[in-house]
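Colleagues,

For the teaching module next term, I've prepared a clean inverse folding example: a structure given as tokens, and then the sequence designed for it. I'd like students to try predicting residues themselves before seeing the answer, so please don't circulate the second half yet.
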């Protein structure tokens, strides 16, 4: 159901009339009273608590506001009004049906971490305004999981959130990732999580502008084709598991020498092509998972099988810190090698009439034996 434009903006003036408006407090005023003292919810749907340091925040007395089963946006606005001029380290809204998130819902509240889950949201903006007004310099983590978000929403209106480090849009209804969403914006973003959507199309340079992106999770989608132009070069973690990929485009990983982990489990990949993987195989800390694919172990794998010395007998080698490339996958065919772990394969075991080229063992990187 569409929302009338006139109803999009939360009536902050109404909150003031009802006596719930709290003017901006100076830091000294906030320090004079406990952070949750101003908070009150007669219905008991929201609560304010103080937390000690967490894995993502070392500070003490963190202010957490958690709202569950909220059905009225007006109620949510009234609950938050006394917190204006204060800080909320983490705000959580779950299992709720408020309908949408107006741009000014958190105006004048210093929020670091926003989490929405299992709460259908039709939009997060007002008209032509930017999303989450007032959080440009404070919001570091934004999670909107299982909120039925779709690709028609203007995600580019989050571009002003220059402090944002993690954006989690997992388990929504996204089908397309637009190039416009992340163009020249979110320059501080380190982690982008898009797992469990319905993404079948990523536009040509959709993620290329996210130059500081460290982790990209595209698992559990409907991807069939990928291009090198989609991705930035600095990625450390790339998860493409459980898609519909049957091949990887030559040059897909060119220049991505920082990669530490690539996950391709549960796709339809049949080979590890040298023109895809050789570009990053020089990274000694690289790990690749390719379990659950119909891998054909034939002559096309000679180049990588030669990188699997089965033992290291040198004392110097045995004393060395284990830094090696890890490859986790199994042959699916032909029958003579079906079920064998890739790291167990040798040139002799490959069903191939052409022998592997002769290389000196000392020139080859070590991989561990399969368990």
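(Answer key — instructors only)
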């Amino acid at each position: 159901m569409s929302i009338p434009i006139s109803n999009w903006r939360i009536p902050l003036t109404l909150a003031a009339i009802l006596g719930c408006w709290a003017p901006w407090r100076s830091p000294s005023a906030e320090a004079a009273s406990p952070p949750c003292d101003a908070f009150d919810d007669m219905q008991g749907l929201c609560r304010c608590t103080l937390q000690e340091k967490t894995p993502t925040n070392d500070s003490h007395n963190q202010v957490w506001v958690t709202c569950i089963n909220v059905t009225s946006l007006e109620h949510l606005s009234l609950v938050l009004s006394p917190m204006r001029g204060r800080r909320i380290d983490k705000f959580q809204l779950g299992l709720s049906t408020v309908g949408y998130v107006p741009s000014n819902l958190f105006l004048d509240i210093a929020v670091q971490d926003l989490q929405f889950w299992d709460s259908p949201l039709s939009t997060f903006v007002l008209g032509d305004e930017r999303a989450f007004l007032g959080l440009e310099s404070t919001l570091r983590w934004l999670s909107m999981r299982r909120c039925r978000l779709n690709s028609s929403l203007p995600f580019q209106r989050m571009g002003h959130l220059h402090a944002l480090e993690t954006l989690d849009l997992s388990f929504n209804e996204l089908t397309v990732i637009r190039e416009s969403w992340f163009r020249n914006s979110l320059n501080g973003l380190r982690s982008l999580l898009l797992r469990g959507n319905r993404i079948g199309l990523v536009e040509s340079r959709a993620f290329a502008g996210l130059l500081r992106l460290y982790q990209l999770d595209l698992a559990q989608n409907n991807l069939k084709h990928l291009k090198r132009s989609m991705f930035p070069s600095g990625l450390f973690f790339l998860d493409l598991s459980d898609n519909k990929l049957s091949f990887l485009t030559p040059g897909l990983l060119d220049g991505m020498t920082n990669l530490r982990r690539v996950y391709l489990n549960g796709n339809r990949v049949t080979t590890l092509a040298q023109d895809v993987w050789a570009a990053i195989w020089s990274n000694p800390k690289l790990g690749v998972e390719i379990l659950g694919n119909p891998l054909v172990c034939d002559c096309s794998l000679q180049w990588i099988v030669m990188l699997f010395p089965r033992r290291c007998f040198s004392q110097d080698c045995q004393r060395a810190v284990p830094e090696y490339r890890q490859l986790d996958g199994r042959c699916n065919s032909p029958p003579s090698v079906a079920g064998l772990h890739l790291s167990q394969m040798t040139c002799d075991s490959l069903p191939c009439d052409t022998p592997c080229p002769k290389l000196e063992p000392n020139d080859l990187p070590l991989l561990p034996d399969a368990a």
